[in-house]
Amino acid sequence: MRKRIAGCLVVLSLGALVAGGCAKKDLVKEEPPPPVTAPAPEAAKPAQEARPEAPKAPVTEQTPVREPVVAQEPARETPKASGDLQGLLQKIYFNFDSSDLSEDSRNLLTRNAEYLSKQPSVKIRIEGNCDERGSDDYNMALGERRAKAAKDYLVNLGISSERISTISYGEEKPVDAGHDEAAWAKNRRDEFVVVK
Amino acid sequence: MKTALTRNYPKPGGMLALSLVCHLVVFLIIANWHFLPEFRRDESPVTYVDMVTLPVAAPQSGMPQAPAPAEAKAPAAPAPAPAAPKPAMALPTKPAAKTPPVKSQAKTEQQQKEAEDRAFNERMAKLQQKAEERRQAAAIDALRKKGSARTGMPGATGNQAGSDYSSYLQSRLRDALKQVIATQTKAPQVIATITVAPDGSIDYRVEKGSGDPFFDEAVQRAVALAGKTLVPPPNRSQYKRVFRFMPEGVK
Amino acid sequence: MIRILLLLSLLLLGPQGFAAESYLDVTAPTSGKMKLAIAPTTALSGSIPADVARELPELFGFDLGIAGPFEIAPNEVGSALLLKSAYGVQGDTAIIECRLVDQVLNREVVAKRYSGRLKDLRRMGHAFSDEVLRVLTGAKGPFTGKIAYVSKASGNKEIFIMDYDGHNPQRLTNNGSINLYPDFAPSGKELIYTSYKKGNPDLYRRELFTGQEARVSSRSGLNAMGVFSPDGNKIALVLSKDGNSEIYQMSRNGKDLARLTNNHAIDVSPAWSPDGSRIAFVSDRLGKPQLFVMDANGGNLRRLTSNGAYNVTPRWSPKGDRIVYARKEGGFQIYAINPDGSGDTQLTSAGSNEHPRYSPDGRFIVFSSTRDGGEGLYLMRADGSGQTRISPDRALNTHPTWSVNW
């Protein structure tokens, strides 16, 4: 309650100041110091929502809440039974701004399908990637489409769609950090990752 | 009221009358234009070019009677030189201090230490400004003494100062506007009635604002700036005229 | 005809009769800019640290210089406007008094006194810059807003936040995965972003002051490019749960999902119109990525861009009169276009420039550029003038987004 009254006072005095705006010279108007205040306690939250202009602890004051550092790739290659499979599965590559499967890619996918069919309990994740040249927004979707293209092909070859998940990393996970065609060609790819 | 008046005219007759008046106006303007150069020829052109260092078109008869109160009100803020055609006056920096014709000061300058340069330059600028003002006042005085018998001009209604005062004020305003002009829109225009009281104090009333706060304020500042050192209108009369302010090159 | 009559009557009734029937013109050349000088900061009492004496005038000079309407005059004399500041300390509280003085009309235009923690000095300075813009132009400045962005400063892409001028960078996420597409809520107090921290690219909403966070969309596939609606109640985003990327909208809590596009093509990068009635987005349904506009319910679709083979990342101006975007022509360049497809204008040309976004007041566009090597953050006025680097460091920094004033 006191907070609210204080808030009202702040708002009122601010209003008064604004109203008194250019009245007299040599008068430095008091302004409720916007940058002050200790970090607002959790309890004050509803009040904050109600008064968006209320003075507020700058984020700079807060040490960002530490998040547990999570391995970004959940359970990449569990190199036990399927360890050799991971070694066998081949990456496929794409042309710029394309998710079409080249003849090479289709051959590689056919071979990948053979390995997969021999180990029907193993699941894989197809990771679609792009080179750095396109828009990264657009590439996020393009990577998705590249992964889906490979998945569809494998499913057509008889691999159960239940066993295949897809993910796009857009242009966020290049294998070659270079900025030339050789690097870009390596980065426009699908990777096949064995998951448990 | 204007519209009411015009609306009251019966259509054909009114139009005829209006067109007549219109033609008369145009004729008078043209007539005046023809008169002006003739009057000018009578004048000896030397003095007034020097006088205000301005492109005063025809500062002929009817120059101010009252002594110039140029230095009377010293502005609190360091006012830019009144008729300053050179920005150097407003910005008293080193190079500015070197150009002036004031000899004895210029010599001492050499001996000044670096630290004192600034203060010195400012004093310099003030001296220059005063000198300039004195020179102007003298020039105006001289011109006044020459005095011609003519006052007013043909077509004038009598309560108005000569066109020379208009030109004088116009160039003062122009110089002031140059210093403070700022715009936010493409072609702002302010139409304002400017009154100069017999004592030389200026006042203005905006007839039509520009809608551009930057330009409106610039005009306000220009009028204030020009009004700081203004020669009063001739014959202890009040001068009043409508001016149109706008950025150069837009019409 | 009426106009002619009016004109004539004006002529007739001019204050001086015949002689004054025309105005006397007073004209002067102009760059348009208002001269404004900034005085060195003085001490409220005692002395003032040299760095503070420099910092505030520099800050004012940067803020008001980049603002556009002002020319920062090098000399106090001869400038109509003079900005003065004074600084003092009481305990651990800093106080600054700022005044804008009209030296010609001899009056105070605005004066404010701020107090805060010593480290908030810059923020107090920006607050006065905001105020100066409000008083002189009628629209408050955006300088106390924050810019959130994606940075690789810590080795992987995390969300950071900084002052609009690149000072005080602060890491917001710290999860070691990939974090992308920050977007402020209209209140400026919440931020949504996409993170791979739990494997899938999911959408998170974080309360900035408490650090509290909720995962608001974790549907299979992409949960990306989320943007708050102007009223803050909805989020438009890209999901690929149905097979390929489509635009959806949902509540701010991730509920009430509605699909807006339905197409085999790629549909990404939704951007709300400021009234919330329309959404611009990118689709390659005609072969190459182009900008489209649809109603917020998905209807009334039409193509926006017809020039260029590859147009992406639209963002609506806060006034609604322009849409800024990036066009790929070799590298990327930033363009702005009217929402009806007219007035297509190129704004950048140096380096490759992407991820444009308007400041909340519409005066500026923030973007990322490779012009100085690497990819850094830059700022320009909405007309493309005044392009200035604001990156806080040399790390790869992209996807800037500017919050309302804190």
From TrEMBL, chain A:
Superkingdom of origin organism: Bacteria
Pfam families according to UniProt: OmpA
PROSITE patterns, per the entry: OMPA_2, PROKAR_LIPOPROTEIN
Record's signal peptide: 1-19
Bilayer disposition of the protein: Lipid-anchor
Family: Belongs to the Pal lipoprotein family.
Name of the protein in question: Peptidoglycan-associated lipoprotein
Source organism (scientific name): Geomonas diazotrophica
